[in-house]
Amino acid sequence: MNSSRFVKSAGLVGIVAALYGLLAVFAATFMAGDSFSWSENALSDIGVSPAANAAVLFNFSLALVGVLNFVFSVGFVKAYAKDALFYMGSILLVLGGGFLSLVGVFTEAYGNIHRYISLGYFVLFPLAMIMIGIAFTKMNMQNRGYLSILAGIVALLVILGGIALDWHTRLGLGFAVPEIVEALIIAAWIIWMGANLTRLTNKKQ
Hints:
There is one protein chain. The chain has about 200 residues and is mostly helical. The chain has one domain (about 5-200). About 75% of the residues lie in helices and about 0% in strands. The chain has helices at about 5-30, 50-80, 85-105, 110-140, 140-165, 165-170, 175-200. Helix 2 (about 50-80) runs antiparallel to helix 3, helix 4 (about 110-140) packs antiparallel against helix 5 (about 140-165) and helix 4 packs parallel to helix 7. The radius of gyration is 17 Å and the shape is globular.
């Protein structure tokens, strides 16, 4: 497979991973039944749910999506290997995907290990988006750059605000809400970037 075809394939993989990940998480929340509530729980509670099918779907899907994000990240750096910031941002994407996979392996049953791994995913991905956004602006891709930066900042504020300020608790919501809000932002960005990769020709854009 030549470089151009790999980049396009990686873009498609990113889109599929983002959509599948969201669908799997929402399906798992439904399958968990009374053991999960948007007003009380974190998403990771599903991973240790007494509803075994929900737990298996949730954990397996996170592990799989993290691996697929690695493929997407490699294609991304191949497409935009013009700036050190892209390399650094792509490395953070790879690490973020790795942490996502590990969330599905080291469930809440592992205590603090799970918490640190989850934090790694929720922090590294938005930082990657911000870094890549800055790189886009340096390449005169202003709209792509500023929107990436904005999405990354909002995603960070949502999750860190949930941790530090408990904004979700004040609204009578569980930690699953800031988690899913950030996940939706990240997924939308990956789908957008993935679509851009599928449209690239042999000439890098």
